[in-house]
Amino acid sequence: RQAIYFSMQADPVDYGEWKTGINASGLMMALNGFMGKLTFAFAGALSGMLLTWGSYVPNQTQPDSALLAIQLGYLIIPAILVVFSMITMCFYNLDKMYPQIRAELDVRSQKAETDDHQTAL
Q1: In this structure, what are the phi and psi dihedrals at residue 67, rounded to the nearest 5 degrees?
Q2: d(CA 12, CA 95)
Q3: Handedness of CA 21, 26, 29, 34 (dihedral sign)
Q4: What is the pTM of this model?
Q5: Within the chain, where are the H helices?
Q6: Please, what is the average pLDDT of the chain?
Q7: Can you tell me the distance from the alpha carbon of 78 to that of 72, in angstroms, rounded to the nearest whole number?
Q8: Which of 5, 50, 90, 109 is deepest in the core (most CB within 10 A)?
């Protein structure tokens, strides 16, 4: 799953450069790293809140509410988020435009190299 996520990061960077002329790949990587850390922190906090809500007590037989909290944290909530992600990806059309975007960016890059070479002469 993470391999797909990281491989998709180039698409919006190229799209942004195509639309604005600005290559923000460094900013995108920094934001993705920061958001990943925030997400892990949020997931840990949510797990703790779910266990507290479920009256979880370590090394004890757990009440039904604690078992429900564990099921929510490890099965139900992740399943809902996966379905939400699948629905969201149905609207992802950038991959259909990507060959055109990449071709135009390559032409721009070649033109910029040619202009730089002529300027240097």
Answers
A1: -65, -40
A2: 10
A3: negative
A4: 0.70
A5: 2-8, 10-20, 25-53, 64-71, 77-89, 94-120
A6: 89
A7: 8
A8: 50
